[in-house]
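Support request from a user on the community tier.

User writes: "When I paste my structure tokens into the form, the page sometimes reloads and wipes my input. The last time it worked, I copied everything first. Here is what I submitted, just in case something in the input itself triggers the reload:"
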């Protein structure tokens, strides 16, 4: 095997990058828009069709980390690794549907989930949701720019910082003018390219290394756990934590809810089903490259798992295919980076300015200026932090916990009329504090304390199972699933869950937020009229006099 990765010349890489971003920019200029169209900039006036919507949701869900993490999962856990990474991620897209349907019914003209929560509870709950989205989207942007820098530095003589700068400027160039519409429009083209290239590259690597026969002959190199498709180790270390984390990302991430509010109402269901299938197929396929490397006994270059896919492509494929792979990764990270910019601009435009500063009397032109300034600022911040090549694992864990802590309060607020603003706020705060104590091992997980935390985690497991069942089969089945899942995890997990810190902490965040939210809500005599949400959330392009006055609505 080659000890070094193949490298393109500086001119070749610059041509690939400028060709990709130049072509994407030209595509975005074909989008027609009206001056001062704030709603179009944020959610394309809720007119996105099935093809565009499904492609955009899939492309956004497949980010740069999907490539490396899927391959790492296959390399680490063997046969079941790619399935755990791809299947659970795909299933989460499908699981968003029933809750997304409810969000859309309550607030058909919303631009962010935060607007719905503001109409339901007020500013504090909304700003918690907005803060988590801002932090998450900035970190996601940084991750994708970091991946671009790493790819450029590995496959060319250009520096890590140069790759970051070009990717940041390229994504900003085509997103700045048309916002979300540019993100969706270019996502479609990027996904078509990703699918076409993946269909070529994955089989090409397989047959270049000798074909399925060679891979099957080398399955003996796998350990018993790696060869087991139902591996307990893979499920507890990869599948279960990923399942729990992705549910949190699905509910808390503005990039997903933005597409939910943008898709034409008649196309919501087929959009989610199509995105589920396409995501699973692509990501499981990418994970198979890691499994191929494992069967052949390949050692990641410099011990870095992120080099695994470039290493396999570089070793087994000619330069033309390596060029296709380069575009594949750049396209995937760009599709998510532009979604992060669109999400951040929508949050600042609607959640911060529209609801809390302008008080529902926003000037659309001023909103557009705020949105574009947000994109520029976020890109600069992303480039700066990405250039440091920081270890972002702690921040990603923190954001995942914050989103995990808000899942039950958000969903309950949209279905249960007794949830209060205090219940929402304190549920998230307490859950986040407990999560940090567990995840960062600030208290010893021994004795009675460890058992107590494991029981809270069992409640969290019940919440995850109950919510998923409730979404598709209703309240009665959801309650039954809650008790069954909670009891099973308590029976199995007490005494052993403490060994799996990431899973324990994530489930604990779900359990604590649920118990606090329910406890405080039951002490209140308030009953909320869900019809008020539709009145309080409207389009921003309408004249101010056509918008409902929030104070008047609240008074009613």
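"...and here is what came back when it finally went through:"
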């Amino acid at each position: 095997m080659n000890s070094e990765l193949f490298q393109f010349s500086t001119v070749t890489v610059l041509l690939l990058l400028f060709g990709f971003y130049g072509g994407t920019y030209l595509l975005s200029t074909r989008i027609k828009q009206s001056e001062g169209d704030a709603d179009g900039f944020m959610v394309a006036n809720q007119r996105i069709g099935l093809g565009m919507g499904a492609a955009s949701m899939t492309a956004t869900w497949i980010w740069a980390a999907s490539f490396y993490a899927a391959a790492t999962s296959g390399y680490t856990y063997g046969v079941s690794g790619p399935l755990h990474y791809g299947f659970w991620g795909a299933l989460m897209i499908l699981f968003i549907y029933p809750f997304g349907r409810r969000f859309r019914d309550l607030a058909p003209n919303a631009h962010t989930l935060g607007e719905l929560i503001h109409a339901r509870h007020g500013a504090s709950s909304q700003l918690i949701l907005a803060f988590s989205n801002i932090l998450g989207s900035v970190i996601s942007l940084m991750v994708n720019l970091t991946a671009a820098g790493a790819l450029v530095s590995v496959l060319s003589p250009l520096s890590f910082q140069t790759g970051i700068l070009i990717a940041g400027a390229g994504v900003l160039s085509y997103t700045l003018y048309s916002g979300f519409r540019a993100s969706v429009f270019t996502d479609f083209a990027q996904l078509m390219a990703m699918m076409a290239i993946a269909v070529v590259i994955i089989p090409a690597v397989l047959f270049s290394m000798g074909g399925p026969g060679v891979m099957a002959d080398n399955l003996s190199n796998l350990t018993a756990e790696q060869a087991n498709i139902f591996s307990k180790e893979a499920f507890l270390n990869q599948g279960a934590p990923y399942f729990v984390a992705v549910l949190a990302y699905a509910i808390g991430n503005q990039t997903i809810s933005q597409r939910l509010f943008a898709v034409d109402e008649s196309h919501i269901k087929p959009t989610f089903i199509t995105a589920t299938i396409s995501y699973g197929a692509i990501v499981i396929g990418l994970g198979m490259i890691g499994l191929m490397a494992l069967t052949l006994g390949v050692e990641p270059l410099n011990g870095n798992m992120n080099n695994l896919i470039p290493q396999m492509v570089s070793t087994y494929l000619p330069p033309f295919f390596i060029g296709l792979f380069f575009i594949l990764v750049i396209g995937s990270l760009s599709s998510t980076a532009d979604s992060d910019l669109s999400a951040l601009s929508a949050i600042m435009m609607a959640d911060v300015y529209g609801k809390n500063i302008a008080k529902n009397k926003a000037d659309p032109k001023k909103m557009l200026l705020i949105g574009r300034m947000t994109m520029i600022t976020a890109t600069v911040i992303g480039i700066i932090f990405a250039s440091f090549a920081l270890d972002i694992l702690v921040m990603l864990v923190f954001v995942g916990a914050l989103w995990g802590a808000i899942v039950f309060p958000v969903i309950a607020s949209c279905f249960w009329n007794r949830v209060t603003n205090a219940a929402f706020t304190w549920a998230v705060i307490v859950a986040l504090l407990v999560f940090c104590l567990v995840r960062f091992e600030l208290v010893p997980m021994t004795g009675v304390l460890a058992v107590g935390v494991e029981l809270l985690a069992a409640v969290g497991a019940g919440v995850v199972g109950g919510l998923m069942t409730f979404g598709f089969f209703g309240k009665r089945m959801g309650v039954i699933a809650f008790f069954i899942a909670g009891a099973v995890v308590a029976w199995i997990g007490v005494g052993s869950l403490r060994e799996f810190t990431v899973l324990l902490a994530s489930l604990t965040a779900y359990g604590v937020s649920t118990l606090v939210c329910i406890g405080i809500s039951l002490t209140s005599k308030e009953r909320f009229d869900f019809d008020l949400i539709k009145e309080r959330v409207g389009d921003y392009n309408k004249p101010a006099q056509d918008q409902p006055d929030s104070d008047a609505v609240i008074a009613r």
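Agent notes: The reload is a front-end session timeout and is unrelated to the input. Residues 192 and 428 are 39 Å apart (CA to CA). Residues 319-357 form the longest helix (39 residues). Escalated to web team.
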